[in-house]
Amino acid sequence: MANNNEGGMNINDIGMIRNILMGEQISDFEKRFNALQDQMKDLEKQLNDKVNDLGDANKIAHSEFEKSVDQRFEAIEKQIISSIEKLDKRLDKVSKDDKMRLGKMLDRVSKQLMGE
Question: Region 26-44: what's the mean pLDDT?
């Protein structure tokens, strides 16, 4: 930038005066600012690492939950199939017993009708 004259002073003179008056403070502020930036970068990295760890833990937990749900559904399915098979056997037995009773009853009715 070119020198700007405002009231007989140029920008370089103002910068020099500032450095003379506040040089140590500005240097201290810059050091503190740089330290804060470094801390912020470290904290940001830690935060990102924790977020990634949580994401990984969430994936693992989701996978385990999914396996657990699948196992439970398989167990329920086996119980339902077993119950259906038991009911089918009972129904077959009841059907056979009913047929035998009905046959005996019809035999008695036919004998009664024939006068026996």
Answer: 92
